[in-house]
Amino acid sequence: MNATTETDRALVDRVAKGDRAAVRLLFMRHHARIYRFVARQTGSEMMADDIANEVFLELWKQAPGFEGRSEVSTWLLGIARFKALSMLRKKKEDWIDDDDAAQVPDGADTPEVVTMKEDKAAALRRFVDALAEEHRTVIDLAYYHGQSVSEIGEVLGIPAATVKTRMFYARKKLGEALKAAGYDRGWP
């Protein structure tokens, strides 16, 4: 089997045996997706770059224990999410709190002006960013990373029913936000 057709699971088996080339192949296949996921979760490209690299160090360490109960991509996104949350907790003391943030004057355009300047995709991205973290994460994993409900449940460590409930409310909020912004069609 050549490198382009070798499955991710076969590559993890090779990593477990100490094969550095297999790590490089998995890195090439999954780094961009993990980087984008972490960048969305943290809002920091520098943090995303560091964490994405750490995920592959973790792959090297944990490969012998990988049992194949989930897809390799799901497993790697789970590692990325855990590392992002850990790093965000460490950085939390440096963040401005909500009360201080509310005191900062808003110099942004009105919602009407903003929606006139942006196309629907950009507006939708902004509305996704405004969702609560639990809703934003399921939307991000489903629509921007192509994960299934069960895979999202594995990444987040929650039941599939909870994923579905969060997805329902996230879609509802996005539809309401789009409608309020003047888009006639709700969820695409």
What does the model show?
The protein is mainly alpha-helical and about 190 residues long. The protein has ten helices and no strands.
Largest sheet: none
Distance between the termini: 41 Å
Structural class: mainly alpha
Q: Number of helix segments?
A: 10
Runs in which pLDDT lies below 50 for 5 or more consecutive residues are: none
Please provide the ordered H/E string of secondary-structure elements: HHHHHHHHHH
Mean pLDDT: 82
Q: Helical proportion?
A: over 70%
Task: Compute the CA-based radius of gyration.
Answer: 19 Å
Strand content: under 5%
List keywords for this structure.
188 residues, mainly alpha, 72% helix, elongated, DNA-binding, Sigma-70 family RNA polymerase sigma factor
Quick take:
With 188 residues, the chain is mainly α. It has helices spanning 8-16, 20-42, 45-62, 72-91, 98-103, 111-117, 120-130, 133-144, 149-156, 160-180. The longest helix has 23 residues, at 20-42.
Topology:
Layout: H1 8-16, H2 20-42, H3 45-62, H4 72-91, H5 98-103, H6 111-117, H7 120-130, H8 133-144, H9 149-156, H10 160-180
Helix pairs in contact: 1-2, 2-3, 2-4, 3-4, 4-9, 7-10, 8-10, 9-10
